[in-house]
Amino acid sequence: MKKVYILLLILCGTINYSFSQNSYWAINWDISTGLGETGDFVQNVNFRGFSVEGRSFINSNVSIGGFFAWDVLTDKVTDANPIPVTIEGTPGHISGTQVNYLNILPILFTSHYYFKSEGTKTPTFYVGGGIGGVFVKQRSDIGLRSYTDDSFGIGFQPEIGSHIPFGYSGSGMNVALRYLYSPSAASLDALSTLSLSIGFSFLN
Amino acid sequence: MKNKYFKIFALSIVTLVLNSCYPDGDVNLEDLDTVSTFYTENDFNPAPSSAIIYWDVAQLKGDDGDDIAYNGEIDDEILNTTLDNLVSLYGASNVFIYSKSETPFPTPNNASVTVITSNDPAPQVEAGIVPSIVLRKNTQASIIYPPCLPGFWYWYCYPPVVGVSSYSVGTVLLELTDLRSGGTSASWNAIIRGLLSSSSSSNSSRTIEGVNQAFNQSPYLK
DSSP secondary structure string, B151-181? Predict the structure, then answer.
């Protein structure tokens, strides 16, 4: 959690810097789903998530900035395989309905390239990516027992998106598709998620 | 001004993220049922090829009398589902029922299985299985219920090896003892944990599912 706090403070500074230059910032609602091993743990699409990002333009087409999100993936698995366990040297298995939770908090430094549109009413498309830390907290409830684990590791997030302006003002709607990947860290499997972000954006 | 408010917003996120989110979902009573099985590896190398089931569900009560009311409502499901699984594992000719009377109650589903009483000669069986159900509410109470089972060469009575103090009320226990070595400790324990509800049909179906799952997740029994 200390690493999360430090990264968040650095992020605040980056976003603060972006306000004093030509900038782009957005607050989004994230719709996420797990892929690969993450998809095996939580199988359905989840609607609990938000992200905040701020970017500063270093030239007319390129920006750098910061990104933070908090996505919650949860799923109830009724046909999970029995979990092998060993208690006091005795092997065995435990089965039952599993309720799985994943709290995912990426804190990333980002860079994007913008395909500038001619007028201000047309969308501004962008591609980019982020790199930074990802904190993952995993919990699995079986019956009245809970098994928890967490990890903090490096994360990578390519994305494509668009700023769709409202009229001639700088405000608009941000729509983005993101893929987040974090290699296996601590005792957790590799993380792989796909998110659709929809939110409000401000382009100065 | 906008910078200040955004910084406050961002720092408040730090406080929020210290507590993760575990949204309450749609969790039913059945979702809290679990089946745990534990075994002694050496006793299943090789696995037994025949078994006898004690045709009575031992009621594990506390010394203080603070037990839930139980009149054998799911005895039929426990015994017959266990019997069906044993027959599936070893074949009807290798499975025996030990009953206190010549007409066992509840009635066994499988008429091909031989019923043994204390008046009959002991069959040559390699494993014995004793079902029980936890009725005591006080988890610190001791357990006393000594069944009598045929040994490999003799009849003997011994206390159940369900030496437990922390099972939830309503838990069904199955214990399989390897009789080949004359041992008295269980080689296989199945702990079918569930909450007895007020719905008899729910209790019945969940019991059957739990016993079947215990055998399904124990392929080493064969």
Answer: -SSSEEE---S---S-PPTT-EEEEEEETTT
